[in-house]
Amino acid sequence: MKLACYAESMDLTAQELRNCSIAATLSLIGEKWTILILRDVFHGVRRFDEFLERLQCSPAVLSARLKTLTEAGILRKVSYREPGERERFEYRPTRAAVELLPVIIGLMQWGDRHMAASGKGPVELLTRSERRQVRAALVDDADQLVRPNDIEISRASRQAESAAGVESLETPAERA
Question: Alpha-carbon distance 81 to 104, whole Å?
Answer without folding.
Answer: 31
